[in-house]
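User: Here's a chain of 306 residues. Predict its fold as tokens.
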Amino acid sequence: MIRAFLLSALLALTTVSSLHADHHDEKKLVLIAGKPSHPPLMHEFRAGALLLQKCLKDVKGLKVEVHDMGWVKDKKALEDADAIVIFADGGGGHPAVQDDRLATLDKLIAKGAGFGGMHYGVEVLANKGGAEFKRWIGGHYEHMFSCNPMWQPNFETFPKHPTTQGVKPFQIKDEWYFNMRFIGDIPGNQLATEGKIKFTPILIGKPSDDVRDGPYVYPKGPYPHIISSTGRKESMLWVVERPDGGRGFGFTGGHFHLNWGNDNFRKVILNTLLWVTKVDVPADGVTSTVTEDELQQNLDPKGKKK
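Assistant: Prediction complete.
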């Protein structure tokens, strides 16, 4: 009788311990989607984040939460996050620079949490968020220094890195920002180490002279310093490994929502989301499918599509 009781108790403890271990091993990725902006099928932050969540739902050891309207409703949602990624409008309206959020994020990132910015989410003010973004993700878009033309780079080769596993060459039109304000004023198109931050460019393309001349989306341009860098390759997705053990990335594409339908465009970001959360990337990258119907789901109410 006593032996049976002890065996039952031991089994119960083992089960609880196992459940706790499973929960502890699970990584949590928080995707913060910005408020509605721009015309239909552009800057569809919520719909895009939900698509990425759907594509990652079968990844073992990963939990993905999507929070919309630019921030989490409860700060507790961030406390146990292994990575936080913001896909939202930026500049002075960037979610991270509101209230005391830079300080909140800095505490989490100092403990090793991953961090990423996508599209307009890589732009902050030089004097508000600029220093933090350099430390967190290696750089940021700076108004009148960086530029934002609509163009179609050809991504032909990739570095050997977990984020590029299974990614094949692709070419796609987007509002690809370039000429970021990177750490140490590095050009951002080659492997570098600055201030103990390891910087690796992932998506690199060479803008033509016509692209450098503009017109940019805003302000129209051209900018003499952009033109003077003719022939230089530019980084549109980069990753960093920080001295605190955490990881970060910046991705300048993501303007056009329908681009998530491109398998390689989508795969390199899904891989990056796993990497920044410290989840192993499959040898062939994240396999996913997105249908035309799914691309039309969860769109912000912006009126009729054109």
